[in-house]
Backbone:
């Protein structure tokens, strides 16, 4: 019997690639997507499509967190950063940071994993070509693994829950190459922070994605 | 300006005492209560009352977690444990364990604390007279403090978020004494796992509470 995994899916390039990676490793996957009032709730539609194409059940978690209004990823009255590629991730935590978003996402993953005897949580986080969020770093996920070990039935009974971040040390070009290799339906992934019908091309996420495809010498099927 | 704290409130004896403790220490408090389909959703009404009496704003978080059906604290078709007091907490994790519930609760607290510049999360957990849940132990909260340090803006900027568990090493009698000393409106707290209109007296939580009042030589105002 294949081991079970909970995949934290946002519908973007990274988490979709992480899902296909988990499938390629033989995990029986369930995916989880969060609705937290993100301005690009468009990504949830992508998550549904990706999960369907991957043949993986998707659980959608709507959360009402009225305290997130300072984040420009939630409050569309706040401008999104539009900075040169070289400065993305270098100038401290950007306004798109959503306080505790990944922490809540992983916590829900731990709950689902502990309830369903899944031995792994799979995340698409990467700490190289990223916006500079603190909750994308390897040390953060290692600390969370310890929380899972100490705070769950699974951990208490010696099975434990691993947090797997297969992309965490890859740059965007290598993630793009991996996505192609794994057959990720990239056409349906959504990375743009702005939402809308077409990627804006100007937000951090669009710029990092574009850089990845350029460096990999590949065409973005979503454009 | 007093430091801010996020108090994880369930409306029971322990978390209500933790709230009054935080107030007594001069924290400016906000409380958070979870609705996760618990059979004793009656406790949310208590949390509202306690927060109002304490003069503290309360945020209610409804969560839809369909994977919790194995827990007898959520699935009322499953019987609640009814065991001798001496065996409570001693026989492994009981059926009332809700996978990841405290992990999600703390994660939401981290999000709220990071968004509102609160330096502390206050929890009523105690690891002495308790049902035997893994997510009540000191080591678990210490590990979570590290997650908060590594994964938040607050931690990145050197302020950090402490997790304070003022009751964690107290037995129930000492918690009851502390509650009286702090003026906790115990009449309105709700501990019973079963819900309903009156505490059942037979679940782990009722038995532990009763033991606490007996050993403290005090009358439970909620009975």
Residues:
């Amino acid at each position: 019997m294949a081991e079970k995994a909970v995949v934290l899916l946002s519908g973007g390039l990274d988490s979709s690639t992480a899902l296909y990676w988990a499938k390629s490793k033989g995990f029986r996957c369930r995916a989880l997507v969060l609705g937290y009032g993100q301005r690009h709730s468009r990504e949830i539609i992508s998550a549904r499509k990706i999960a369907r194409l991957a043949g993986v059940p998707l659980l959608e978690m709507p959360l009402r967190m009225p305290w997130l209004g300072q984040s420009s990823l939630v409050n569309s009255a706040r401008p999104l950063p539009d900075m040169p590629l070289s400065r993305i991730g270098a100038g401290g935590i950007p306004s798109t940071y959503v306080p505790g978003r990944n922490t809540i996402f992983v916590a829900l993953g731990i709950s689902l994993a502990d309830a369903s005897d899944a031995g792994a949580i799979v995340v698409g986080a990467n700490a190289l070509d990223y916006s500079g969020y603190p909750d994308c770093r390897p040390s953060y996920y290692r600390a969370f693994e310890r929380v899972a070990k100490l705070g769950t039935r699974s951990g208490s009974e010696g099975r434990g829950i691993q947090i797997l971040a297969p992309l965490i040390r890859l740059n965007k070009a290598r993630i793009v190459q991996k996505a192609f290799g794994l057959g990720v339906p990239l056409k349906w992934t959504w990375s743009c922070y702005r939402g809308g019908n077409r990627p804006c091309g100007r937000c951090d996420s669009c710029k990092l994605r574009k850089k990845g495809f350029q460096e990999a010498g590949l065409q973005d099927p979503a454009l």
